[in-house]
Structure prediction request, 228 residues.
Amino acid sequence: AQSVSQHNHHVILSEAASLELGCNYSYGGTVNLFWYVQYPGQHLQLLLKYFSGDPLVKGIKGFEAEFIKSKFSFNLRKPSVQWSDTAEYFCAVNAENYGQNFVFGPGTRLSVLP
Amino acid sequence: DGGITQSPKYLFRKEGQNVTLSCEQNLNHDAMYWYRQDPGQGLRLIYYSQIVNDFQKGDIAEGYSVSREKKESFPLTVTSAQKNPTAFYLCASTRTGAGANVLTFGAGSRLTVL
Prediction:
């Protein structure tokens, strides 16, 4: 079965610090990868996605993620965080041979101090 | 605007009572999903449906039931058999077919069992 792990449960940063959130998955086949964000009191929304092609993908609000197939990883990065990035971040995987099932990681809560 | 509507937003239930959570989408998506979100556990799949009148159990289906009589609607019933029903429930949908797909989420329903 697929599984997704996220390295940190809670990350606390000051504004302007750089961010990297780790995500690893267990499935060995072709995968589609996602990062979703949940701002306080808001819907889960898509931050960025990787389907194929360039392993470095850019998303909204200055976020990017790099797919490293050999490491089964899809880490999320942002060079300089803002207070408004305070949210919970979820990594998700959809394996093409696993039908329409999307598996989510446990989430990482990011707190950015002003 | 197209989207997913979940109701009610907040729901309180006494032990032993069944409760039904509504999920309606006007995105013309074929596949619909129910996830349960608990702190530190991410999103766990309860049920999903790829087509009308068909649905599959997810990882934590015990104590839940669903129906898919219309493409737009995928209600979830939390039965008295669910041992720990207090949680945040998220409905999602996506198109199916060729190509990779992205989940769109509703705002969620928070169920509290008293």
Observations:
- Chain A has no helices and twelve strands.
